[in-house]
Amino acid sequence: MVQNTASPTLDGLFRRILARQPEALALIDPPDKTRVTGEPPLRLTFAQADRAIAALAAHFIAAGLPPHAIIAVQLPNTVEHALTILAAHRAGLVVALMPQLWRHADLAVALNRIGARAVVGCARIDGVSHGDLIMNAAAEAFSVRHVFGFGSDLPAGMMPLDDLVTGDGAAAAPPPLDARAAALVSFDVAGDGLIAVPRTHLNLISGGLAIFLESGMAPGGTLLTAQCMGSFAGLAATLACWLLSGGTLALHHPFDGEVLEQQLVELKCDTLVCPAALAMRLGGNEGTPRNVIALWRTPEQVASSPVWPHGQTRLTDVYVFGEAGLFSARRAADGAPAAIMPGPFGAPRDDAQSPVAGEALLTEAGTLALRGSMVPLAAYAPPGRSAPPADHVDTGYAARLDRATGAVCITAPPPGIMAVGGYRFRADDLLAWARRLGDGAMLTALPDRLSGHRLAGRADDNAGARAALAGLGLNPLMVEAFRDRDGPD
Fold this sequence. Notes:
Blueprint: H1 10-20, E1 25-28, H2 33-37, E2 43-45, H3 46-62, E3 70-73, H4 79-90, E4 94-97, H5 104-114, E5 118-122, H6 130-139, E6 146-150, E7 159-160, H7 162-166, E8 182-190, E9 193-200, H8 201-215, E10 222-225, H9 232-245, E11 248-251, H10 257-267, E12 271-275, H11 276-279, E13 291-296, E14 314-321, E15 325-330, E16 343-345, E17 358-362, E18 367-371, E19 393-401, E20 408-412, E21 417-420, E22 423-426, H12 427-435, E23 442-448, E24 452-458, H13 462-471, H14 476-479
């Protein structure tokens, strides 16, 4: 393959920074990493990170994973997550993002859907044995040949990777990569179920540019992220923005308020990336960064959100439409959400010559559609067609134009799709799982101001319902919907 110099890959961006400042600090682990995974936190320079990436990439290749094979990744917000993604790309592999909330049922379905050849996981995350979960799910996926893991006390059959991160192996020359080749698979939910959404390096970098340019993020600064990297938006706002800025990426494993405040003060971060619900609760205390980037998984809620009161801190709202795409808008001095006009987005308001990351438009059905270099057309193509009409993806979000200003007003999420934070599922799935619990059981989604929905369940025996759902391999959102509510909530 020929290297595409006009459109670099993620690894190409990393190596450009490496050539300029090999001894600069690249990655910082959460200070409470020992609590999360049982392993000590790491701080790596770009040279150290490059050696780890090269060692991991060589290990993947030596294991027999061919170019363009899919390697699934389910890891916490730690240094290993960023290193694994970059190493997989350097080895010519496609990374499939497995959300951390996924348990056995979701993992097994996704691994079979994409034909993953390998999986990378962690022994435990927040006290949960994710190593066992991944091993059990991989056993049900015929395509999986290798299961790799970080951490101590890995399950039998899980190949350890920790020594590759901390070792001093020689860095091999990376093979040439094409920015137009597949690099990423994430997962979305539509009316007919789970969708695997593939993207190229160009798609991913375009998403990062849409955020980086609009936010005015300072080159070379420290970016602290409390946003998981298990989705396109999470990866664009963290890994891509870090590589575009050429600074330091500090990681926070969601969520510990005291630890986050400690990191903000000690690291003197220029930018904080976090879910919108967290951003809206931030105060203007010591350590508040110059830029806050808030990811809205409920973009219909932005217009009615509180005014941002923190004078010297700029807030950029990132409107996230599942895995179809995103756009961002920086709030003005008055702190009110910026008006979203139909048409191109991605260039700062004071620089019309900057690149355009995409375009927002309204469909005849009264929904918002996206098109542009970040939008994966084929993944959302209707059955029997090679691409959606007019080269756009219909997000399903109801929208209209304001008669006075012409701005886009997003009014409602896609029908039949529920969202609890970044986790999306069909409303029909709630009914199906409740039926598995027998007569008298109910599982429903209640509206929530910031996260979209919250789950509530009722059964004759809540403890028994939790055990049954956990035994079915469901995610903790559904399991904990049946928590007892006799005491204070």
